[in-house]
Amino acid sequence: MNKHVNADISDLWPGDFYRLWDTLPEEDRSLLKRLRAFMETEVAPIVDQHWRDATFPHDIIPKLGELDLIGTAWSGEGFRDQSYLLDGLIAVELTRIDPSIGTFVGVQGPLAAASIYHCGSDEQKAEWLPKMRNFELIGSFGLTEPQVGSAISEGMLTTARREGDQWVLNGQKKWIGNASFADLNVIWARDESDNQVKAFVVEKGTPGFETEVIADKIALRIVQNAIITLKDCRVSEANRLPGARSFEDTAKVLRLSRGSVAWQAAGCALGAFETALAYTRKREQFGEPVASFQLIQEHLVEMLGAVTASLLMCKRLSELQDAGEDSEEQASLAKAFCTAQMRQAVARGREALGGNGILLEHKVARFFADAEAIYSYEGSREVQTLIVGRAITGESAFV
Questions:
Q1: Where is the Acyl-CoA dehydrogenase/oxidase N-terminal domain (predicted)?
Q2: pLDDT of the residue at 151
Q3: Fewer beta carbons within 10 angstroms: which end of the chain, N or C?
Q4: Domain with 260 in it
Q5: Is the pLDDT score of 5 beyond 60?
């Protein structure tokens, strides 16, 4: 028997072991193919240098805008009204090449633009969303604070005070992707009059709005996370999102975005898997490709299992989202499970490359490092676990 056989899996996407792509209509596959070509030809060759330098490739933004990636599941004038499955697979295609670019688009769409889509007035949507959709306007999402992360629903320190037809914002936000160059910054603040969380769109150049890029990160180095300082920052009542009346409205946005992060985690694990698979097929020891070694195959199969389980969980979540039947707890389980699977997968990928696994030139090190940020943002695994635990036991373990 010939020891070397042809693997019966697609060269286009070897991680799609259960042929998820085959369930899509041709129009969706066409969009994903265009996105894949863009990511492989325009982004893959430049991301290592930008990751090394902690810089953002601004020149790719107009090209991203041409791909029509934002709001694919949204309905209304100008939107595709297709599916959250397509939306999720867009996140996979972005992140399998670079988690930082996947995060950039995740902030632009599922967070910033989604806040306006779900909480904005018709006039606000008409004014801002078309330009956000084509990336003419870049958005950020200001929720987390220097002193408050998981407890933000109860402990938000940023305040809003109404004075006539203006609002005065004071406070700080931290870890805000895109904020240093965003045109529209969705800022969540607690209204001093009723103690409820509300949302405001702070435009670039508004007096009292300052940003400082966070340096020395070891993950998602391309993403320009910033600390936002709001000091007597005045915004018009016209820039308040009227549909954001309490943290429950914030949670609606987060419920959908956590599903998107689960897809990102699957994409990060997929990128590490594909990188490790390609490397082990070419790397030889003792006259044989290391992909023929039993223990290397174990690493690859475990990685593929993590990718597949995550993709299929995300697929079912997207079906529930399309039907309007998804819950906070389901999104939390997907986020917690998929990011944990991702973390294990990238570690196996790094190990499969041996010493070369820590070198940026071999790619898997970037996935290995970036996974740590995806694992933590949009709600930690611990908090998501407690949300699901409360749902299945009927007992709250929150302090």
A1: 26-133
A2: 76
A3: N
A4: 248-393
A5: no
Rounded Cα distance, 359 and 33, in Å: 29
**171 domain-assigned:** yes
| pLDDT score of 159 | 97
Position 77 scores a pLDDT of 66
Cα 361–98–317 angle (5° rounding)? 140
If you ran DSSP here, which 8-state letter would residue 215 be given?
Answer: P
- Domain shared by 265 and 241, yes or no: no
Question: Taking residues 357-365, what's their average pLDDT?
Answer: 96
* Angle, CA of 201, 204 and 209, to the nearest 5°: 80
Give residue 226's pLDDT band: very low, low, confident or very high (50, 70, 90): very high
- Grouping H, G, I as helix, E, B as strand and the rest as coil, residue 254 is helix
Domain final residue pick, 208, 225, 245: 245
Show which of 82, 111, 133 is a domain's final residue. Answer: 133
One-letter-per-residue 3-state SS of 322-380: HCCCCCHHHHHHHHHHHHHHHHHHHHHHHHHCHHHHHCHHHCHHHHHHHHHHHHHCCCC
What's the CA gap between 35 and 29, in Å, rounded?
10
Closest to 7 (Cα-Cα) out of 299, 300, 268: 300
**CA dist., res. 307 & res. 17, Å (int):** 9
pTM exceeding the 0.85 threshold for the entire prediction:
yes
Are 169 and 195 members of one domain? yes
**Alpha carbon 364 to chain centroid distance?**
19
Cα gap 102→317, rounded to integer Å: 19
Q: Which helix (H) or strand (E) holds 257?
A: helix 247-282
